[in-house]
Amino acid sequence: xxxxxxxxxxxxxxxxxxxxxxxxxxxxxxxxxxxxxxxxxxxxxxxxxxxxxxxxxxxxxxxxxxxxxxxxxxxxxxxxxxxxxxxxxxxxxxxxxxxxxxxxxxxxxxxxxxxxxxxxxxxxxxxxxxxxxxxxxxxxxxxxxxxxxxxxxxxxxxxxxxxxxxxxxxxxxxxxxxxxxxxxxxxxxxxxxxxxxxxxxxxxxxxxxxxxxxxxxxxxxxxxxxxxxxxxxxxxxxxxxxxxxxxxxxxxxxxxxxxxxxxxxx
Length: 266
Ligand SMILES: Nc1ncnc2c1ncn2[C@@H]1O[C@H](COP(=O)(O)OP(=O)(O)OP(=O)(O)O)[C@@H](O)[C@H]1O
Description:
9 strands, globular, Rossmann fold, binds adenosine-5'-triphosphate, alpha/beta, 3-stranded antiparallel sheet
């Protein structure tokens, strides 16, 4: 068989894993999202950039089904995710998120029980998904922490006693413990020392390359987005002003606001 024949299936474009259409959300009279649409293909990383208050985190919370928008639809191309996910009740959302969507927040207090052990935090995710065997819980928690390059000798320490970088690794371990289809990252390295930031980014990059995890990452730091993202979406005042391949957007931004963002960074 020729090399061309072997390579051919890789060229077939699959369906997007994630499709969000015309998502809108207001807080009182403040429009946080206006008709935001996005699609992400399996194994792809979408980076979302924009100034503070542009709606990045609100959009991510919608994708994590924590927030219900006023309008719009959201589908995941998975056997256990039927129809518009915004229509699911609380229980169905919780189960779907536990199995298929992992999230890492900027603030570890949002993602972790700070006084429980780190391994317990990861195991909690497995418990929600129905795992009850103690040995399995411990083994899977250990494997997820190891994959997140967390120092295993500290796995019984509570996050409150750990450094910021280690706390983010516990969040990451919890997020990937069940090998979710989608990993959401909300400013995962913001607030960390630059050297620690680089190490956490290395871990994310390695995990993405090894496991081909589909990711959506929000950051105001274009360097972070540039390191990880295949495609970029630029948001301003709740709207998408530009979307495209990362290289294209960074090298030749079309919208005046994207030009301002990119040039401010250079
Ligand atoms: N829970 C909330 N209640 C009221 N207003 C909110 C709430 N969450 C967000 N907003 C408002 O919605 C808009 C978008 O906020 P959002 O946090 O999504 O932006 P962002 O781009 O993530 O900003 P940042 O980078 O500062 O987190 C802002 O005007 C914000 O003040």
